[in-house]
Amino acid sequence: MGGFLRILVATTLLLLSVYSVAGTTRSYEFNIQLQNVTRLCHTRSMVTVNRKFPGPHIVATEGDRLLIKVNNHVSNNITIHWHGIRQLRSGWADGPAYITQCPIQTGQSYVYNYTVVGQRGTLFWHAHISWLRASLYGPLIILLKLNVPYPFSKPYKEVPIIFVV
Length: 165
Ligand SMILES: [Cu+2]
Hints:
- The chain is mainly β.
- The protein has a single domain, classed as Cupredoxins -  blue copper proteins (Immunoglobulin-like, Sandwich).
- It has one helix at 2-22; strands at 25-39, 42-49, 58-61, 65-72, 80-83, 109-115, 121-127, 137-143.
- The chain has a four-stranded mixed β-sheet, with no helix packed on it. Strands 3-8-7-5 form a four-stranded mixed β-sheet, with no helix packed on it.
- Belongs to the multicopper oxidase family.
- It comes from Helianthus annuus.
């Protein structure tokens, strides 16, 4: 019985360690659609993700797999690039139009599928076709794994800030 218990404990620990390394899968849906946006008293129709400007936050933990389904509801062709993400064996998810993929045409969808490996911090995503990057962007936040400390004292609060030049 003691031997059986020991094997059971060892198996459980092994499974736990495998799961903690594997991370989880996080799914997002990006609907590319026109939206009226007002800035400094001017309103204009812009191409947005989910009618938000800047676009939605993507939040993942290091080791997570991201599935981001992009549905194109505008007349422009679209691709999205995950700026700064190392695409390890997932180059087709990088996003530059005509380089790693054909653009997502009107009425079409594409699922970006990649795993965040060996990086953490705040990056951003943006359109990677023509001038659409001017309005299509948002933060991509990679959190530390559970029980991994910050390389500095723990922040009191975190606020994503995007500078557009
Ligand atoms: Cu970029």
